[in-house]
Structures are given as structure tokens and as C-alpha cells.
Design goal:
alpha+beta; three-stranded antiparallel sheet; 441 residues; nine-stranded mixed sheet; 2 domains
Length: 441
Amino acid sequence: MARFDGGRMSSDGGVILLKQVDDSLGFSRRFAACFRDERHPSFVEYRVEDLVRQRIMGLALGYEDLNDHDALRHDLIFGLASGRLSGGRANCAALAGKSTLNRLERSGHKADRYCRIIADHEALATLFVTLFLDQHERAPARIVLDVDATDDRIHGHQEGRAFHGYYGHNCYLPLYIFCGDHLLSASLRTADRDPGKEALADIRRIVEQIRSRWPRVRILVRGDSGFARDSLMTWCEDNRVDFLFGLAGNTRLYDRIASLSAEVRDEAATTGRAARGFASFDWITKDSWTRRRRVVARAEWRHGNRYHRFVVTTLPQGTSAPRHLYEQIYCARGDMENRIKECQMDLFSDRTSSHTIRANQLRLWFSAAAYVLLTALQRLALGQTSLEKETCGTIRARLLKIATIVKVSVRRIVLSMPDMFPCQHEFALAHARLRRLCQAS
């Protein structure tokens, strides 16, 4: 027999680790500071910080739907994470329900009758870069900013709906910028705009913010051929920012490496195995570029088929050989694809089903905040453990989703977790590390 009558139990005991990370970074407090609360103080039951923390931790624990919070608002573990075990009024639960959280997400440019909490989008965009900078005790000598866009499929009639020919469906085209596993920007774009040109505003903002604290850091911007736009490359060259972008092949480029291609083809035919060669040369297009730039070509033949690729860069010939530049520096950008998949598949950043772009952008930032919280947990507490390199979804499944009995007395709250929990060592170690961080801060 099975019944839901276990009483004060929760399936999310690991949320106490997220609370420790949140406290050490002051993340929810700083995120909530990007909102303007115009509610009447006499009628406020839940602070903006409480609402923000509840939504971010809900996403981190796998609750993408606001409807889930009508049950989670009574969950003592979630209340413990927010410091609220009961409501301030007789008819209020410890935490907010779906309607209150929905009003938070649907905030407009100004307060109205139903939405009186206004999000400052510029402050939110700035916060993610600030958190990245705060993670470093000293300025690194060089950083790499990976930029990429992905499709976010939409099915209704949301604002900004457009068809994208490459993906073959109606979608948004959110633009992500990462530095390693640090998320610096997640901007919602419509699919009828060129991501290469749209990226310039975000890259300019991020570079200026980074250099305001680290004026001497060398910055490399890396992306696929969709970002090889003259306006973006010219800005990088004029502002001492290196770039490395893919470059779409064309007849003129193939003719330029015809002799190299023939050599590689003959080698592949002789050995019966794949063969590749590399070349570097200065190049300018007929009319779309305003100056000559260095292009690196990779000529490859496999099974009688041609697989040629090109990249354009400001990295000089003497500091990076063509093969090393392509295979070790450019191809490393593929790891960013995994970070985007984590955001979309594990943290629901593609749940942009609100009508307005503004509300969907805020949803995207909440998912980005959940990603930042989980990767901070991994970076601060899970080093040299079996979860050191796992995805956000694996960390949630193995470390955070723990059946927990909650016992509340006058003087303490006792959490009883299963004896057979497989990751007891990792949990205890993470808790000890985070406790030291909280005490130090």
C-alpha cells in the first residue's frame, strides 16, 4: 500500500547546500536588489528577496512550473532555505504561491494594478558579470569569452514570434556569453535578427565592465561563423580585443587553398585514412570587410569527401601556429554547447511561454541564476569529489534530491536523511566547506 501521508517530509533535503551557497555569495539579496518594489508595505507578506530565492531554488531543484509552488509553499525545507517556517498572517503559508510568483515574472516597465514589482533589466544584466569578477581574487592574464546563439522553440503567439530558416520552426534566438563555465550574459533575441550584429552590444557592455576592474586583462572573443561580421570584428580591433571566429567557406576561399587541398586528397587516397593540412594567409572579402585579416584554413579529406573549414582571427602568426590555433583554441569553443544544453535541458531556460518578451527575458534570467547557483556549489564545495565535473542535472539528482524528515522543536530543526544515501561523503564534505565559507564571510 502506498499513500501520501508521511507528514513533514520533503524530497529536497539538499536545498540546505544551496542555501549555504546563496548566503556566502549574497546572491538572492543582490538579485533582489535589481527589482523596485512599489507595493504598499502594510500589505506585503513576502519580500522580493524571498520571492526571488524561492523561484531560483525551485528551478535549481527541477520545478520549472509555477504551479508546483502551490504545494512547495508548505514545504518546510523550502521554508528553511528562506528563513520562513510559517506565514506572518493566519491565512498565509510560509512561502508564496503560483499567483504571487507569476506577478513577479510578469513585471512590466512600470507598476500597474496587478504587477507592482519592477525588474531593472540593465542591473540584472550587469549582476552576472559582477558575480564572475567576484569569483577571482586576482585578475587573470587572459580570458576567453565564448558567444553563441541557440533556438528556443515557441508554440503560441508570443510577442516577437518569427520563423527561423536554419532551425525550421518559430523560435526565439537567445544569445549566451560564457567565460569557461561562468555565465556572463543570456539575452533573449527574436529569430528575425542577425545574432552576429546583435552580439556587439552585449560584448561591448561586458568588455567595458570587465576592464573597469581588470584594465590589463587580455580578452579573446570566440564564436562560430555567424559572428564573423565586419562591425563586430572592427570594434574588437579598435578596442584591443582579440577574436577568433569561424568563417563560412566560398568559392574564392576554396580556390585559395586548392594546392593544399590536392596534397591532402592525395595523402588520404594513398593511406586510406583521413588526412588534413593547415594554412594561414591574409584575406579580404570583395565588399563586406573593410580591412585585411588573418584567415586559417583546415583542409581535410575523409572517405573521398571534402571537409574544409576556415577561421578568421586577430591572433598573430608568430604566437599561434595554424594547426594549434584551430584544433586547440578554436575547437575548444564546443564545450560551450554543453553549458547551453545544461541551461536549457536541466534548468529550463527554454520555458519562455509568457506573452511578452520582457517577461520571457526575466524567466531566462531566473534560469541563468539557477545555473550560477549550481555551478557555484560545484566550484566552491565539490572539488576533488565524484561530482566535480558533473552536469547541473546530475548534481541535482545525486546530491540535492534527498528524502528528508523534518522535525521542528522549540530550540532546533532536525533533518533526518536516509541511511543508505549514496553520496553521504560528498554531502558532508560540501556542507563542511560551505560552512567555513559562510563563517569567513
